[in-house]
Amino acid sequence: MSLLSNTWFAERLGDHGIHSEYLEDHHPAHMPCLEIRRLDWAHAAEEAKRLGMRLVAIWAAEAGKHDVKAGKRRALYTYMALAHPEHRHALLRTELRGDNPQIHSISQHYIAAYRMERTMQDMFDIDVMDTPDNRPWLKHEHWPESAYGLLHTFDSKTPLQSDPERLDVDYDYVPCDSECAYEISVGPVHAGIIEPGHFRFHAVGEKILNMEERLGYVHKGIERAMKGRTASDGLKLAARVSGDATVGHAWSFAQACEYAADINIPARASYIRGVLCERERIANHIGDIGAICNDAAFAFMHGQCARLREDMARLHKEAFGHRLLMDSLVIGGVAHDIDDATCQKIMQQTLDIAEEVERLRDIYADTASIQQRVIGAGIVSIEDAKDIGLLGFVGRASGHYPDERIEEAYAPYDALNITIPTGKLGGVSTRVWVRFEEIANASRIIIQLLEQLPKGNIQTPWTAPEAGMSGFASIESWRGEIAAWVRFGVDEKIDRYFVRDPSAINWLGLELAVRTVPVPDFPLVNKSFNCSYAGNDL
Amino acid sequence: MLRILHQIFKVGTITEPLVPSEAFEVVGAKLQNTIKQRFRGSLAIRLVDAGSCNGCELEIHAANNAYYDIERFGIHFTASPRFADMLLVTGPVSINMKKALEMTYNAMPTPKLVIAMGDCTINCGVFGQDNYAIAGKVEDIIPVDAVIAGCPPSPSDLIQGILATLTV
Ligand code: SF4
Q1: What SS3 class is residue A158?
Q2: Which pLDDT band, with edges at 50, 70 and 90, does B20 fall under?
């Protein structure tokens, strides 16, 4: 699995006087982790931006138990992951000092960093300097101020009791003093079958002036709950970070573990993973296209799409034991092999569904009532999309096209020729168009994978790596890139898991997309993004 | 328009007598009778996701698709707890959703039937009860009338669970 080590970023940093050191205990070598000085942190981000890299994530981690020197305080590190379209991923790490750990914000270079930096403040008591926004994010107002969920000193095993004094404290929403504007608050319990979150609208007449998201309601302490689990136990948790992207999350977690332990999975297993992930992509796109149309009162499409999605769920149950494909991966491979008959069935259904979708697409395209609603609604400009680094189909609708199946080219996609739709207009109709294209592409990929399915095992035996080893993986799920970082501690147990769902970045795009949109169009635009609350809140 | 009609006729009615087991038919019929009796053919359900992974929500959506068509039993999902007969809760209750769950429950008129859906509501599932961010199982927060096991429960399990609550 170890490709050649990737020194490109280290060299570029060196050109600008930023010294970096390659960390041996991190894998894979083609996505290296470089230690830099704390004072170079923001400068390194600035250089990365100039080099055309996008921000993948920023997070923090305490040193593991194995790494604590007697009599010394536990070290605290911050990490930054960046990606270049040609030179792949690189991680940066720096150590924070003293009792009041501080780090410079990188939000002025990468705006997508600011919520992740707020999370670092919430969970580690890190002082992020010069941040444009230092309000708490996941740490809601009722939490005791002294609670920092990811510090080892925090009692993570008992449910946190609200601070009675803080129960009525309100979040510091962006105010609007204008006499012409009015405010609408929605959530956390929304109208409909949907996850919880709060949206605060400022509207003038029927147009939205500003929309502010307040998330974190379904924060379940996933990163902390992962601590102390074995890899295979942890996989069940990772598969439930966001249930609709269970294959993507399980894959990114499993691959980070496999990288850390330096094991290769059999080719057959990686092909089956590809099939699972592409099927998940199709099922979600179909479901969402139906739901988008439903939000514009085109119930026919909704009915047809829900039917197709159900057909897929039933075959998933039959072939992989779960309607949503949960727990279909194991560390080192996949849980279920496919025999020839099942293989034929999956191919046939994939073809049938792709054909039906094309027929529905024609109807959708020719129905003026739905077209009038979707064309031009909820636009994110190319400039904004690149600035934020929007991921997946949302990025691909707005001129920003990162796709890890091409850039990272992990197995089985390294053996395929992947094409991606490249939209530019950035509205609801473009996002729907990208989704239709992706359904067609994914079905071609599935057929190719199944036709060329290699023979052999579906699992490699798993042995956990030594304490201190970490692995990083980046998987293109249906929403976009899922980045996962896993570090092992003593007794083969995981001691830190960080995951960044694409929603954590794409939610920012929604805030921009709904500006100047009529309030009743919000559900339509929102659905066209369909960001995960669970994946964002962790 | 013609193509829409063509597609509709070609697909036809696909609504199933819910799972090829006869038990389920009985379930359907019983459900309808009970609802007729107690809710005059209209049971309004309000869903609260109290911290789910969103897998349970996918299956609630599926219960509304043409195969299961939960609405044929007079069951529908409503936007407000104010006119809901039943509260359907998913997920372990996160500390950040506890208050909203309580408020939603309090906003409902009696009889305030509550169904807890999914393994998360039974034992907090994979997220665990020894977790700072989880306030507890649903029944630790509000009274529960029935629980439906599964991760997530299938659409037909969901419908059966609703029946079980109404026949007690
Ligand atoms: S029961 Fe399973 S599917 Fe439902 S919310 Fe919990 S983890 Fe997700």
Answers
A1: coil
A2: very low
Size of interface A-B (CB pairs under 8 A): 165
Q: What is the pLDDT of residues A243-260, one digit of tens each?
A: 999 999 999 999 999 999
Neighbour tally for A266: CB within 10 Å? 19
The residues pairing with A459 across neighbouring beta strands, listed in sequence order, are A333
Pocket test for ligand 1, best of A193, A220, A240, A532 (most atoms within 8 A of CB): A240
Q: What are B105-150's pLDDT values in tens digits?
A: 999 988 888 889 999 998 899 998 899 999 999 989 999 888 888 9
Q: Which residues of chain A neighbour B11 with C-beta distances below 8 Å?
A: 304, 307
The helix or strand, by DSSP H or E, that contains position A312, with its residue range, turns out to be: helix A299-320
Q: What ipTM was assigned to the predicted interfaces of this complex?
A: 0.91
- Residues A378-430 have pLDDT tens digits of 999 999 999 999 999 999 999 988 899 998 889 899 988 889 899 889 999 99
Residues of A in contact with B57 (CB under 8 A): 193-195, 243
SS (H, E, C) A385-444: HHHHCCCHHHHHHCCCCCCHHHHCCCCCHHHCCCCCCCCCCCCHHHHHHHHHHHHHHHHH
Q: Which CATH superfamily is domain A3-167 in?
A: NADH:ubiquinone oxidoreductase Nqo5 subunit (3.30.460.80)
Number of helical (H) and strand (E) elements in chain A, helices listed first: 17, 16
Dihedrals phi, psi of A166, to nearest 5 degrees: -105, 5
Say whether the peptide bond before residue A502 is cis (omega within 30 degrees of 0).
no
| Residue that has been written with the tokens 């939960």 in this structure | B70
Neighbours of A165 (CB within 10 A): 10
Instruction: Indicate yes or no: CB of B55 within 8 angstroms of CB of A244.
Output: yes
| Residue with CA nearest ligand 1 atom 2 | B151
What is the distance between the alpha carbons of residues A72 and A154, in angstroms, rounded to a whole number?
18
* A21-33: pLDDT as tens digits: 888 888 888 898 9
**Token pair 């609603």 in the structure block, residue:** A373
The answer to whether B39 touches B85, Cβ cutoff 8 Å, is yes
Report the SS3 class of residue A193: coil
- CATH code, domain carrying B139: 3.40.50.12280
Fold classification of A173-217+505-538 is Enolase-like; domain 1 (3.30.390)
| CB of B151 shorter than 6 A to ligand 1 | yes
Taking Cα atoms as reference points, which of A499, A35, A428, A430 lies closest to residue A255?
Answer: A499
Whether pTM > 0.80 for this model: the answer is yes
Identify the CA nearest to A511 among candidates A219, A178, A171, A111. Answer: A111
What's the Cα-to-Cα distance from B32 to each of A148, B63, B78, B109, B116, rounded to whole Å?
Answer: 50, 16, 18, 22, 21
- Residue A34's φ and ψ, nearest 5 degrees, are -115, 135
